[in-house]
Protein backbone atom coordinates (compact mmCIF):
# COMPACT_ATOMS: atom_id res chain seq x y z
CA UNK A 1 0.00 0.00 0.00
CA UNK A 2 2.86 2.35 0.79
CA UNK A 3 4.23 2.12 -2.75
CA UNK A 4 0.83 3.14 -4.12
CA UNK A 5 0.78 6.21 -1.89
CA UNK A 6 4.27 7.11 -3.10
CA UNK A 7 3.19 6.78 -6.74
CA UNK A 8 0.11 8.91 -6.12
CA UNK A 9 2.17 11.54 -4.31
CA UNK A 10 4.65 11.73 -7.18
CA UNK A 11 1.88 11.77 -9.79
CA UNK A 12 0.18 14.67 -8.06
CA UNK A 13 3.23 16.43 -6.69
CA UNK A 14 5.18 16.91 -9.92
CA UNK A 15 2.31 18.56 -11.84
CA UNK A 16 1.54 20.71 -8.79
CA UNK A 17 5.17 21.83 -8.60
CA UNK A 18 5.12 22.64 -12.31
CA UNK A 19 1.91 24.64 -11.88
CA UNK A 20 3.37 26.82 -9.14
CA UNK A 21 6.87 27.12 -10.66
CA UNK A 22 5.93 27.86 -14.26
CA UNK A 23 6.73 31.58 -14.06
CA UNK A 24 10.30 30.64 -13.18
CA UNK A 25 10.38 28.17 -16.07
CA UNK A 26 9.07 30.67 -18.66
CA UNK A 27 10.39 34.08 -17.62
CA UNK A 28 13.98 34.90 -16.66
CA UNK A 29 14.04 38.66 -15.91
CA UNK A 30 17.42 40.28 -16.42
CA UNK A 31 18.64 43.55 -14.86
CA UNK A 32 20.21 46.50 -16.65
CA UNK A 33 23.86 45.98 -15.81
CA UNK A 34 25.17 48.87 -17.91
CA UNK A 35 24.17 51.14 -20.78
CA UNK A 36 27.70 51.96 -21.90
CA UNK A 37 27.37 49.57 -24.83
CA UNK A 38 24.44 51.48 -26.38
CA UNK A 39 25.18 53.72 -29.38
CA UNK A 40 25.60 57.42 -28.66
CA UNK A 41 22.38 58.31 -30.46
CA UNK A 42 20.27 55.97 -28.29
CA UNK A 43 17.81 57.69 -25.94
CA UNK A 44 15.61 56.39 -23.11
CA UNK A 45 12.10 55.46 -24.20
CA UNK A 46 9.19 54.63 -21.91
CA UNK A 47 5.56 53.65 -22.33
CA UNK A 48 2.79 53.54 -19.77
CA UNK A 49 0.85 50.30 -20.23
CA UNK A 50 -2.93 50.22 -20.17
CA UNK A 51 -2.91 49.39 -16.45
CA UNK A 52 -0.44 52.18 -15.62
CA UNK A 53 2.67 49.98 -15.44
CA UNK A 54 5.73 51.89 -16.66
CA UNK A 55 7.84 50.05 -19.22
CA UNK A 56 11.38 51.24 -19.90
CA UNK A 57 13.66 50.83 -22.88
CA UNK A 58 15.42 52.80 -25.59
CA UNK A 59 15.00 54.27 -29.05
CA UNK A 60 17.80 54.47 -31.59
CA UNK A 61 16.71 57.02 -34.23
CA UNK A 62 17.18 56.28 -37.90
CA UNK A 63 19.09 58.59 -40.20
CA UNK A 64 16.05 59.71 -42.19
CA UNK A 65 12.93 61.62 -41.09
CA UNK A 66 10.37 60.22 -40.99
CA UNK A 67 12.19 56.91 -40.69
CA UNK A 68 10.91 53.38 -41.05
CA UNK A 69 10.95 51.62 -37.69
CA UNK A 70 11.74 48.21 -36.23
CA UNK A 71 9.88 47.38 -33.01
CA UNK A 72 11.84 44.66 -31.22
CA UNK A 73 10.54 42.02 -28.79
CA UNK A 74 13.19 39.95 -27.06
CA UNK A 75 13.60 36.46 -25.70
CA UNK A 76 12.63 35.18 -22.29
CA UNK A 77 16.06 35.81 -20.75
CA UNK A 78 16.94 38.98 -22.61
CA UNK A 79 17.66 42.52 -21.47
CA UNK A 80 17.02 44.37 -24.72
CA UNK A 81 19.76 47.01 -24.56
CA UNK A 82 22.22 44.39 -25.82
CA UNK A 83 20.17 43.77 -28.94
CA UNK A 84 19.82 47.49 -29.63
CA UNK A 85 23.57 47.94 -29.30
CA UNK A 86 24.43 45.67 -32.21
CA UNK A 87 26.06 47.73 -34.95
CA UNK A 88 24.65 45.60 -37.76
CA UNK A 89 21.12 47.04 -37.66
CA UNK A 90 20.44 49.17 -40.77
CA UNK A 91 21.13 52.76 -39.77
CA UNK A 92 18.29 54.14 -41.88
CA UNK A 93 15.76 52.44 -39.60
CA UNK A 94 14.66 53.64 -36.17
CA UNK A 95 15.00 50.83 -33.64
CA UNK A 96 12.82 50.65 -30.51
CA UNK A 97 12.56 48.11 -27.70
CA UNK A 98 11.22 47.97 -24.17
CA UNK A 99 12.18 45.51 -21.48
CA UNK A 100 9.28 43.28 -20.50
CA UNK A 101 7.58 43.76 -17.14
CA UNK A 102 10.01 42.87 -14.40
CA UNK A 103 12.97 42.99 -16.81
CA UNK A 104 15.53 45.77 -16.74
CA UNK A 105 13.93 48.73 -14.97
CA UNK A 106 10.39 48.05 -16.21
CA UNK A 107 7.80 47.80 -13.48
CA UNK A 108 5.51 44.85 -12.76
CA UNK A 109 5.72 41.11 -13.26
CA UNK A 110 5.51 39.31 -16.63
CA UNK A 111 2.41 37.42 -17.73
CA UNK A 112 1.40 36.32 -21.21
CA UNK A 113 -1.69 38.51 -21.26
CA UNK A 114 0.20 41.61 -20.16
CA UNK A 115 3.11 41.11 -22.56
CA UNK A 116 0.74 40.81 -25.52
CA UNK A 117 -1.12 43.97 -24.49
CA UNK A 118 2.16 45.82 -23.84
CA UNK A 119 3.30 44.98 -27.36
CA UNK A 120 0.30 46.86 -28.76
CA UNK A 121 1.02 49.83 -26.49
CA UNK A 122 4.62 49.96 -27.70
CA UNK A 123 3.58 49.82 -31.35
CA UNK A 124 1.06 52.62 -30.86
CA UNK A 125 3.60 54.83 -29.11
CA UNK A 126 6.09 54.35 -31.95
CA UNK A 127 3.48 54.91 -34.69
CA UNK A 128 2.43 58.19 -33.07
CA UNK A 129 5.91 59.73 -33.32
CA UNK A 130 6.42 62.46 -35.90
CA UNK A 131 9.90 61.13 -36.75
CA UNK A 132 8.58 57.64 -37.63
CA UNK A 133 6.79 56.61 -40.83
CA UNK A 134 3.76 54.68 -39.48
CA UNK A 135 3.32 52.95 -42.86
CA UNK A 136 6.72 51.26 -42.55
CA UNK A 137 6.81 49.67 -39.11
CA UNK A 138 8.24 46.16 -38.95
CA UNK A 139 7.81 44.00 -35.85
CA UNK A 140 10.79 41.86 -34.89
CA UNK A 141 10.42 39.03 -32.41
CA UNK A 142 13.01 36.64 -31.03
CA UNK A 143 12.08 33.31 -29.40
CA UNK A 144 9.44 34.12 -26.74
CA UNK A 145 9.01 37.54 -28.35
CA UNK A 146 7.84 36.03 -31.65
CA UNK A 147 4.44 35.53 -30.00
CA UNK A 148 4.26 39.21 -29.05
CA UNK A 149 5.37 40.29 -32.53
CA UNK A 150 2.80 38.01 -34.21
CA UNK A 151 0.05 39.40 -31.97
CA UNK A 152 0.96 42.98 -32.87
CA UNK A 153 1.08 42.01 -36.55
CA UNK A 154 -2.47 40.69 -36.29
CA UNK A 155 -3.86 43.67 -34.42
CA UNK A 156 -2.01 46.56 -36.06
CA UNK A 157 -1.26 47.55 -39.70
CA UNK A 158 2.45 46.74 -39.68
CA UNK A 159 4.42 46.52 -42.92
CA UNK A 160 6.23 43.28 -42.15
CA UNK A 161 7.44 40.85 -39.51
CA UNK A 162 10.78 39.19 -38.75
CA UNK A 163 10.45 36.19 -36.43
CA UNK A 164 13.64 34.59 -35.14
CA UNK A 165 13.28 31.08 -33.68
CA UNK A 166 9.48 31.23 -33.91
CA UNK A 167 7.08 28.65 -32.51
CA UNK A 168 3.40 27.84 -32.94
CA UNK A 169 2.44 27.55 -29.26
CA UNK A 170 4.16 27.55 -25.90
CA UNK A 171 2.17 24.47 -24.91
CA UNK A 172 3.69 22.55 -27.82
CA UNK A 173 7.19 23.64 -26.79
CA UNK A 174 6.49 22.61 -23.21
CA UNK A 175 5.22 19.21 -24.32
CA UNK A 176 8.40 18.68 -26.37
CA UNK A 177 10.64 19.31 -23.35
CA UNK A 178 8.37 17.73 -20.71
CA UNK A 179 6.46 14.95 -22.53
CA UNK A 180 5.52 13.31 -19.21
CA UNK A 181 3.62 16.40 -18.00
CA UNK A 182 0.07 17.45 -19.02
CA UNK A 183 1.44 20.81 -20.16
CA UNK A 184 -1.74 21.95 -21.92
CA UNK A 185 -3.69 21.55 -18.68
CA UNK A 186 -1.08 23.16 -16.45
CA UNK A 187 -0.05 26.14 -18.56
CA UNK A 188 -1.40 29.49 -17.34
CA UNK A 189 0.66 31.68 -19.68
CA UNK A 190 -0.79 31.04 -23.13
CA UNK A 191 1.32 32.15 -26.04
CA UNK A 192 -0.30 30.84 -29.25
CA UNK A 193 1.27 32.77 -32.14
CA UNK A 194 -0.03 30.35 -34.78
CA UNK A 195 -3.55 31.58 -34.03
CA UNK A 196 -2.47 35.16 -34.74
CA UNK A 197 -0.40 34.11 -37.75
CA UNK A 198 -3.49 32.86 -39.56
CA UNK A 199 -4.72 36.47 -39.70
CA UNK A 200 -1.42 38.09 -40.77
CA UNK A 201 -1.22 39.08 -44.44
CA UNK A 202 1.96 41.19 -44.38
CA UNK A 203 5.35 39.74 -45.46
CA UNK A 204 7.18 37.48 -43.03
CA UNK A 205 10.83 36.51 -42.70
CA UNK A 206 11.28 33.47 -40.43
CA UNK A 207 14.86 32.80 -39.33
CA UNK A 208 15.75 29.50 -37.68
CA UNK A 209 18.94 27.87 -36.43
CA UNK A 210 19.84 24.57 -38.05
CA UNK A 211 20.74 23.09 -34.66
CA UNK A 212 18.22 24.80 -32.38
CA UNK A 213 18.07 22.81 -29.14
CA UNK A 214 15.31 24.92 -27.58
CA UNK A 215 12.67 25.28 -30.31
CA UNK A 216 12.34 22.24 -32.58
CA UNK A 217 12.25 22.89 -36.32
CA UNK A 218 8.75 21.45 -36.60
CA UNK A 219 7.39 24.02 -34.15
CA UNK A 220 8.96 26.87 -36.15
CA UNK A 221 7.64 25.37 -39.35
CA UNK A 222 4.13 25.09 -37.92
CA UNK A 223 4.11 28.83 -37.25
CA UNK A 224 5.52 29.53 -40.70
CA UNK A 225 2.89 27.36 -42.38
CA UNK A 226 0.13 29.14 -40.44
CA UNK A 227 1.22 32.60 -41.66
CA UNK A 228 -1.36 33.87 -44.15
CA UNK A 229 0.80 36.38 -46.04
CA UNK A 230 3.88 36.10 -48.26
CA UNK A 231 6.80 34.55 -46.42
CA UNK A 232 10.43 33.52 -46.61
CA UNK A 233 12.24 30.82 -44.63
CA UNK A 234 15.91 31.28 -43.73
CA UNK A 235 17.96 28.52 -42.08
CA UNK A 236 21.29 29.54 -40.53
CA UNK A 237 23.67 26.56 -40.89
CA UNK A 238 25.65 25.28 -37.90
CA UNK A 239 23.90 27.70 -35.54
CA UNK A 240 22.04 27.01 -32.30
CA UNK A 241 19.28 28.95 -30.58
CA UNK A 242 21.66 31.43 -28.97
CA UNK A 243 24.24 31.76 -31.74
CA UNK A 244 22.36 32.37 -34.98
CA UNK A 245 22.36 36.15 -34.39
CA UNK A 246 26.16 36.16 -34.54
CA UNK A 247 26.26 35.06 -38.17
CA UNK A 248 26.54 36.98 -41.41
CA UNK A 249 23.69 34.98 -42.96
CA UNK A 250 21.37 36.23 -40.21
CA UNK A 251 22.08 39.93 -40.78
CA UNK A 252 22.26 39.67 -44.57
CA UNK A 253 18.83 38.04 -44.58
CA UNK A 254 17.37 40.80 -42.42
CA UNK A 255 18.88 43.52 -44.63
CA UNK A 256 17.46 41.97 -47.80
CA UNK A 257 14.03 41.59 -46.25
CA UNK A 258 13.88 45.18 -44.97
CA UNK A 259 14.93 46.56 -48.36
CA UNK A 260 11.90 44.90 -49.93
CA UNK A 261 9.24 45.69 -47.31
CA UNK A 262 6.52 47.84 -48.90
CA UNK A 263 4.72 50.62 -47.04
CA UNK A 264 1.50 49.39 -45.46
Report on this model:
This protein is an alpha/beta fold and 264 residues long. It has one domain: 3-Layer(aba) Sandwich (Rossmann fold), CATH 3.40.50. The protein has helices at 2-26, 81-84, 112-127, 145-155, 170-177, 183-186, 193-197, 217-226, 248-260; strands spanning 43-48, 54-60, 67-73, 94-98, 132-142, 160-164, 204-209, 231-236. It has an eight-stranded mixed sheet, sandwiched between helices. Helix 3 packs across helix 4 (145-155). The radius of gyration is 19 Å and the shape is globular. The chain starts with a helix and ends with a helix.
Secondary structure layout plus pairing:
Layout: H1 2-26, E1 43-48, E2 54-60, E3 67-73, H2 81-84, E4 94-98, H3 112-127, E5 132-142, H4 145-155, E6 160-164, H5 170-177, H6 183-186, H7 193-197, E7 204-209, H8 217-226, E8 231-236, H9 248-260
Parallel strand pairs: 3-4, 3-5, 5-6, 6-7, 7-8
Antiparallel strand pairs: 1-2, 2-4
Helix pairs in contact: 3-4
Q: Which characteristics define this entry?
A:
20% strand, alpha/beta, Rossmann fold, disordered N terminus
Q: In a few lines, what is going on in this structure?
A:
The protein has 9 helices and 8 strands. The chain has helices spanning 2-26, 81-84, 112-127, 145-155, 170-177, 183-186, 193-197, 217-226, 248-260; strands at residues 43-48, 54-60, 67-73, 94-98, 132-142, 160-164, 204-209, 231-236.
Counted beta strands: 8
SSE succession: HEEEHEHEHEHHHEHEH
Outline:
globular
Tally of alpha and pi helices: 9
- Low-confidence sequence ranges: 1-14, 16-20
Helix content: 25-40%
CATH superfamily: Alpha/Beta hydrolase fold, catalytic domain
| Cα gyration radius (Å) | 19 Å
| CATH architecture annotation | 3-Layer(aba) Sandwich
Mean pLDDT: 89
**Strand order, largest beta sheet:** 1-2-4-3-5-6-7-8
- Count of structural domains: 1
**Main sheet properties:** 8 strands, mixed
Strand content: 15-25%
Which topology does CATH recognise? Rossmann fold
Span from first to last CA? 67 Å
- Structural class by sheet pairing and helices: alpha/beta
What's the level 1 CATH class? Alpha Beta
